[in-house]
Write a structure and sequence with these properties.
Layout (H helix, E strand, L loop, with lengths): L2 E6 L5 E5 L16 E3 L9 H32 L3
Antiparallel strand pairs: 1-2, 1-3
């Protein structure tokens, strides 16, 4: 069962939906059925892509952690009594 991306022509809401055979999709915001199906990329999942995504996530997490630690040190340095 494919997941399709849509834009509602009535309220401009963008959403994804798992579309079952013989089922007409409906906008979750306004319940409209005047939808435009979007062209979307397909996803590939393999051990290589999972490892790359995990590595990227860990790097982003470490960067955020460093930024928070730096901000906390700056705050403490500038607000000592």
């Amino acid at each position: 069962m494919p997941i399709y991306e849509y834009v509602c022509r009535g309220c401009a809401h963008r959403f994804e939906m798992l579309v079952l055979p013989q089922v007409s999709p409906m906008c979750p915001e306004c319940q409209g059925r005047d939808l435009e199906q979007q062209i979307s990329m397909f996803a590939v999942s393999s051990e290589g892509t999972k490892a790359a995504a995990l590595k990227d996530g860990r790097q982003r997490s470490a960067s955020i952690r460093r930024d928070k630690d730096h901000a906390a040190m700056e705050y403490e340095k500038n607000h000592e009594h």
